[in-house]
Design goal:
mainly alpha; two-stranded parallel ribbon; 107 residues; Arc Repressor Mutant, subunit A; single chain; 2 strands; 40% helix
Length: 107
Amino acid sequence: MASPFREQIYVLVRSVPPGRVTTYGDVAAVAGSPRAARQVGYAMAALPEGTDVPWHRVINSKGSISFRGDVERPTEQLRRLEDEGVLFDAGGRCELETLRWWYPDAG
């Protein structure tokens, strides 16, 4: 079972609609722990295959997918985002200014 903080992260990430993205830092801030972006990343990495949490919609603050030694997961993340209409430029960045989800119900 996930910790209460991780459960809160998963609830927030589930609220991000298809075709939109959020950042690790945004999720941490809305969860009340603005310095916990890394923990959000750990929570996304801990999800089992087949999860209903749309982990692929969480990217870094530069608008890019974070590559951490694993080649398959970032490739899958890119494919899923592109399937939802999120486009990346030649530098691997999306238009974070227009695609970023701002959690309107988070107060």
